[in-house]
What does this fold into?
Amino acid sequence: MKVLIVTETLNEGGAELFLLRLARGLITAGVEVQVVSLNSRFENKDITSLYRDVPINRFSLPFFAVIDFFDKTILRLGIDFSLRYFLQGRQLKKLSKGFDIIHSHYIQVDYLITTIRKEITCRHIVTVHGDYSSQYDSYRKGELRLWLRLDKKLKQLNKYVEQWVVLSEEQRNFLKEKMTTPGERITKVYNGIYAYETDINQENDDGIFTIGMVARGTQQKGWQLLIDTFLRLPANCNLLLVGRGEYLDRLKCNYSDEKRILFTGFQADTVSMMRHMDVFVLPTYYPFESLPNVISEALQCGLPVVATDVGEIRQMITDAETGNEAGFVIKTKDRQPDAEELYDRLKYLYDHPDERMKMAVTAKAASKKFDMEKCIAAYQQLYRKQLSLNFSEM
It folds into this structure.
C-alpha cells in the first residue's frame, strides 16, 4: 500500500504536526508513505527536523512572486482561477502515479485534488481539521478573501472525495447538514499521539504552582484572559507561556516586569515544557476549535486541564471507563470564556493538591483514546476499505 499525504504547509499547527506523526506511524506499520508540502516557503524546520525519517517532497515553483501577483490580481477581478494551484495540480498528477491513496489535510488542497480527480487513479481521503467551518463562516459573512465560489467548491468536494475523516461531532454535522455528505462516507477518528514516558507531576519541592499554556500565538486562544486571571492568584504561582507570534511579542513586552510570567517562544518539544507544569490551561474562544493536540499531550503528561467547553474538549478530558474528568471545562459568556469561573477553577486546583493528583491519574487514563497505534490502525482500515472498492484482493 502506498499513501501520498498532502498538505499546504509544514508550519507549526495541530494539523501539520498530526500528519507528520501519522506518516511516521504508517511507515512503522509497513506502509510506504510520502508527504507533500505544496508551499516550501512556509515550513517550521525545528519541527520537520524531528521527522527526518519521513520522506517529504517540498513543492516549489519558478517565478513564484510573479505567479502570486497574477493570482492576487485575477482574484480582485473576480476570476475564479489560481495559476499556482493549476501548476501544482500538474505536479501532483505526475507525482501521484503509483500511489494507492492520496490523503489531504487542508480545504484548498482537498479541492485542488478534486480538480485532477478524473486524471488520477488514487482514492481520495480527507481529514477535516476545522478549516471547513471556518471558511464557510467567512463565506456566509461575505468575508472570504483567498478564493471564490465556496458553494461550488463544496459541491465538487462532496462529489469527488471518497472518504471523510472528522475529529468532532461538529465537523460531522457540518458535512451532513451543509454539504449533504452521506453518513457512511464520514468516519470519526481522533488524532493519535505517541506515548510519553512521563511521570505524573508531583507537588514541586519549592512550593511553586506552575500554570502552563501552549498554543498558536493568536489572540483568540485566550492568552490575555489567562494572564489577567493568573495575576489574581497567590504569589507562589508561576505562568509558563509557550508559543510565538507578534501578538505574544506584544504581551511579552507589556509584562516584562512581571518575573513570574515566562514567555518561552516557540518550542518544538512541547512535552519538555509540560513537564514543568502542574496544570495546563487553554481558555480558547476560537469558534472553530475541534480537537486541540496540546490537550492530548497535556493529558498524556498527566496534567489536569482547564479549558473552554468548545469542540471535543469535554470528551477529550473524560475517562471513558469511569466518566471522570481530568480537570474542568469553562463555560463561555458573551462568546468569551467566563473569567470568574476560570479563576475559581485554578484557585481550586491550587488549594487542593490531592484533588489535583486524582485528576492527574484521570488524565493518563483519558489520554488512552489518543493512542497512536489505534489511530494508525483506524486509518489503515479506511485505506483498505477504499482500495477494496477498486480491487478484488488486497
User: Anything to note?
Assistant: DSSP finds 16 helices and 15 strands in the chain.
